[in-house]
Amino acid sequence: MCWHIWRMTRPFADPTLTHPVLLPNGTPHLGTVFLKPALSHPRITVGDYSYASAHVPPADWAAHLAPYLYDFSPEALQIGKFCQFADGVQFITASANHRYDGFSSFPFAIFGGGDMEGRPSMPGPGPDTVIGHDVWIGQGARILPGAQIGSGVIVGAGAVVSGQVPDYAIVSGNPARVVRMRFDPDTIAALLEIAWWDWPIDRILDREAAICGGELAALRR
Hints:
Layout: E1 32-34, H1 35-38, E2 44-46, E3 51-53, H2 61-65, E4 77-79, E5 84-85, E6 90-91, E7 129-131, E8 136-137, E9 142-143, E10 148-149, E11 154-155, E12 160-161, E13 164-165, E14 169-172, E15 177-181, H3 185-194, H4 201-206, H5 208-213, H6 216-220
Parallel strand pairs: 2-4, 3-5, 4-7, 5-8, 6-9, 7-10, 8-11, 9-12, 10-13, 11-14
Antiparallel strand pairs: 1-3, 14-15
């Protein structure tokens, strides 16, 4: 995203807007969307102000972000508030899986030969994928089925993430590993208790300097 477009003085974006960013000429920046209003998918839930960006805006943001999550999928994708997803981020949800505990992973059932339901070549339902609050996922990262990413996590560009990622960790690589924790355990516990993402937006903006500047004492006040 070209951050100079944020320099105009204007009210903070309404979370119900699909295109919350305006270009200097006043037209909406189509490559950035608030996901809650942009998505209409029965298996995806998103908190306010979480956004995604794409250099080439897709016609279907749900399919762009989670291409294997179908309307009839048994699993779900849950995304918290104030998350930030860069271009090329994809959630590979459980419906992408093949059965691989036997001799073949080939999905015979989807090509016919009888009813699909109950066929032995189809895997059972997989786990939900859950993303916490204020999570930044870098360009081209892949989030694998059933990943549980805590609040405040930063995922490096191109990372391939599976399993559980603790709150306020920085992860990168393939497979993704914790590079370091962003804060000490006491600070992390305090931030989770404060849960600034649940505050009214006016209060968040009033405490913007403390949130972005790491001033825990000011947030506690």
